Amino acid sequence: MFKFIRRALGLIFSTIGFAVVVILIIGYMKFVRSAQEDPDSDPMTDNSVLQLEVGGLPIKDFNLPTSLLSQLQKYRTQSLIELVELVNEARTDSRVKAISLSIVGNTLSAAQAEELRTALEEFRKAGKKIYAFAYAFGDNSNGTSSYYLASVADKIYMQPHGAVSIIGASLESFFLKDFLDEFDITVQAARRNEQKGVIDRFTRTDFTPEVKENLYSVISSILSHIQDASAKGRGLDKETYVTLMNTAPHQDRQAIQTKLLDDLIYRDQVRDKIKVELGNNVAFVTEKGYSPQGKRPQSKNKIGVILLEAEVPPSGSTALTMNDPYAPESLDKSFEMALKDPAVKAIVFRVNTPGGAVSGAETIYRAVKRTVDKGVPVIISMGSVAASAGYYMAAPATKIYANAMTLTGSIGIAMAKPNIGKATENYGITWDRVQIGDNAGMWSMTQDFNEAAWKKVQESLDIFYANFTQTVAEGRKLSVDNVKSIAGGQVWSGLQAKENGLVDEIGGFFAAMDEAKKIANVADTEDPNIVIFNRVNVGLPLLFSLLGEESIAIIKQAIGINTELSHTTATTRVRLVM
Fold first, then answer.
1. Domain coverage including residue 71
2. Of residues 109, 299, 388, 493, which has the active-site annotation?
3. Average pLDDT for residues 302-329, to the nearest whole number?
4. How many CB atoms lie under 10 A from the CB of residue 36?
5. Is 196 a catalytic residue?
6. Number of domains present in the structure of the chain
């Protein structure tokens, strides 16, 4: 009797669970479909203007659907690579006559602005127009980078009573030494070498002279690039633009007089301005409403794409990294899967990371080197930052591309360990320990390193630094002495890195892709066959894990999935056609 009741209840709850999941799936698919449509877009015509808006939403290199939640998040986050691809497609689309670019904030990094601006510059070189609009260039903030992006346009408009805050560049950091001293927290720190400044915020009250000199050099390189491009875009000489920068912010009328702006209008008036030049029959098409012209035949040879856009964690799966496509072990398997596909002739590895754990960097480094050694070229595309561990993993690649304003280098290592023992004693908290092994407690946060442990720490830093410089020397085909001269922990701009041999070419993701297309013998009449190899959990396994096998089989048949959902990683990898 009880067994029958249990089975009956089980059947009822299974049916309810099945119905709930089906409703969730149908609702999600309807959401995706509706999110891809834009009722505000005109239909495409032979006289279309593509409308783009940047600077308001957060922007990532690429939106990987790592979970159900992140797939929903995709529609609230912009993808730089997809945005640049859209501009590239519009450049060769005879129906698109112009781009209307609205810059509504300052969320783009300098390197992101550069990568998008480069694509817009090529669009303009194709004989097409660009109209830029902003409510202000820096609304109580620094608008130098956003104005740099706008300076590619034929016309720059701003809303009345705004300001053009091309005030230059600054870099600041907080320092905690006095704060830690106040609480009797001490920090033991070491580095290789003197310009590896990451530990200074714990041990000093300001930058060291060496670090400050390095940071000033980087900012000067980046700002000089912005000044050159912005001045050229507005038809000004650099000296005049530098003067305007040093006397900024400029109020709206001042900006008109100094030729920084073309007119003061409201956003709803931009269309009227465009119609004067392109005619009243112009169609204004949004990013979602744009449909590219027919695709060309696809190349048989494949180009793999692997993306890293996160700080590098230690190797090894944890609850936080087991479904993370950027985790070291996941990236290692991504390279492995690409190697197993004989049609893959080259890989573009997009590196956008400030660095991270030594073990994680070593795992990814090995994956890159193994791939190159087995005859598949790896082309590095550096994003906004590819420094420290980010450069270490890039060193053995076939070729390295960076934007002019990418932050890279930082070849070195640093460590810091706090001692909170005395601080806790001040509040009545004491500590005791039992240990076996002379150095078993060396990483305890309640005591300093003893002499033997401190010696071990120094030895490990020496070994890693020697390995780091040797790896860079081998990968970049430089002498170790040459590498050490640029490996004091300095950060370099992409331009500086090219000058000192750490980078091969200045260019963004699509410049690296063009190099990969040459290697893969993709004809000019073909579209490249591009496959993203990041291990992606599409979100459905979490839902289906709640159901039995019969329920899973029914849903799989209904929506046309033939693979095992518990293993939907690279077997259902995202495909990107450009």
1. 48-167+250-286
2. 388
3. 84
4. 10
5. yes
6. 2
